[in-house]
What does this fold into?
Amino acid sequence: MSEPSSSNHYATLGVERSADARAIKKAYFALIRTYPPESHPDEFKRIRAAYEVLSDAEARERYDAQEKGYREYEDAVAAALAAAEQASTAGDEDAAQAALSQAIEAHPGVLLLREKLAASYTRKKDHQRALAALDALIERAPEAARYHLLRSLSLGALGKLDAAEQAARRAHALAPDDEAMAAALVDALTRNEHAEEALAILDGVAARHDAGSLKGMSIQLRRVHVLYQAMRPGEAEEAVQQLVDQVRASGDPELPKHVASELGAPAAALFAADLHARANHLLSVCRALHPESLVLRPYPPKATLETSALSPAALERLAEQERAPDGPALRMNPWGSPLKATAGAGALSLLAYLLLYSAPAPASAEAAASTPFTGTAAGAIVMAVLLGGVALLLSHVARVVHVRRKSPIQGLTTIHPLYLVRADPEQTELYPLFCLSRSEGVHHGHNGVYSHTVLRLGFGGAEVSLTFVDGGFAQAWIDHLLATRKRALELLAAGYLDAEHGVELMPPTLLDRRPPSRGARLWAQRRRLAAAAGGALVLWAGVMVSGARYADELAFRDALTRDTAPAYDAYLRARPDGRFAADARRALLRRRERATESLALALDRRAPGAEAVAALGRAVEEGGARVVPLSLAISDSGGRVPAGGADVVFGNLGADLGATLAQAGLKSVRIKRTPGAGGRSGEANAIEVDCTLTGGAGTGGTGQLDAAWKVRVIAGGAELRSFAVTTSASAAGTGPESGLAGVYAQFVQALLADLGLQGVEALRRQIAPYKGSSPYGN
It folds into this structure.
């Protein structure tokens, strides 16, 4: 399109002189998109001036009649009117008002001067002064319906709804056939909730026009607005459907766009009344009629999309707002998520370290040598989970840092002409201002000193909470937000929202986007997840090997600290192939050698019993035998010997006598139990033990058990040694010092003394762990 001409309003807008209001409006919107005020201020002013003249029926009629010079007035008045019009066109209403006021003082009877002055006050939103100017007009021309109409509009802007209704009634009464007066009265009645009367007036106006004509559809549009305002959504939606059917039946390709634009007014009113669902239903009809429109579509309370879905121009605009020191953008901390992830990875790493290297001191050698928790299947799984979490968190940190370094924005909350925007390099949240239903600000302080302000915003079902450290800035920010919302509603109602600067950068079509599903996001990050899994596997393998080595070292260190045969034995049984197994075996052998040497030194071979047993052993060995028979007889008529008691006594005797043979160097000779009558084995080489039990509660005695013991050592049929002793113990009780156990314990002490073993009993117990089958040999 070529640059708009300034010589003729029709040429400026590029329309024919016969163009109707819809064509003029369409041309106007197309031009201001091409020539916005920010980049083409001069062209925009000419376009706006042409539209204001041609969109006003009276001004257009005067222009068409070539009366723009106001030649019906004297030169001073005409000059004042021309100067005021020129100033208003340039946007300088103060200059226009000054010129008109000066002319009124000189020519108080010229009503057009006062009308123009009232219009200028209205454009400046100085409705009180506009009302005063209109009252002066009505005083001079009380029958002029137009002045009462303008007075009604000013009263409505001041919130004086009853007075506005009365002024509209007066205008309608003065010009009952003027549809502009009827429309003003309908609006006033609707605001005052007199819907039935408003609908009756509309029915009267509609009767003058064909329902399928443009005028008939305009009346139907106003009827829809009244029904929605009257909270009669069922009837309103029925009227909308009738209107849609008429539009589609018309066959006019431009009519659906016009009707959709006009339906924006009731939709804006519904949004202002917090009736978001009804407003969105109406906008869904608008989208069906005019799918090419950027703004006529439903607005959900919140939309979340990937920041990459924004256009480069939108991202650059957000970046400019983020950098601006005095703009509406609230900068967010871009490193909160990476710092939290890093802290989480550190916590998981610390927990893994504690599980590996901070086990409590073991209570026993077996506990020290046992497999640690991390060496079990459950421990390995727990460690894998912990290290996998560490790898995932660190990969998340790396990804976030990479994305933020490449993104033009870091994180901000700002105000767009249509939304509250919260954006970071990965995700953007859009909260349509139309859906703003609640705003609450709370100032916080401590000990009477202001600290911060928390602002909570409600967008339907979505909530936003913002924190400000400057109360004044918080108030200015919320005022700007509410003013932006008000402007958006006004533009939607007027049909100008498409032309608002900045809308095209983030059009409402973005609200239809949906964030990718969790599965899609995981698939998009498959490389990162695979790298994290591989890193976790390598880390897990290294940690498990290190943990096993540390546990092995810790177990052997505990064995060294205890320095006992059970400790070394427990280590070798748990870790036969451990790093310190050879050291443990050498330690055991050294302890065995030392204990054996100590036992040999402690043995008193000169004791008579020891000499007799040694002589017996040599006699057996010289005779080519390897067994010394041992017979044991216990005489008891009172049933004092428990089942298996004789076997226990025999086993202990055999061990003591066998130790005596071993210390005499007769390791190949062993003790074997042989049955015998009365303790007599009948063998030429033998050891015979006879025990006679008397007394005790079982025989009605004194409660004391007496035992007469006799030991005979026989070699070659000759008695080498005879040893006798009597022992006593309480017959009652079950402890080690009563009954058969008690008398036997006393007998053993006497026998050990006779055999010369009383000094080696403790040492013999030390040697016991080194005997038998074990991982380290005998």
About this structure: The chain is about 55% helix and 15% strand.
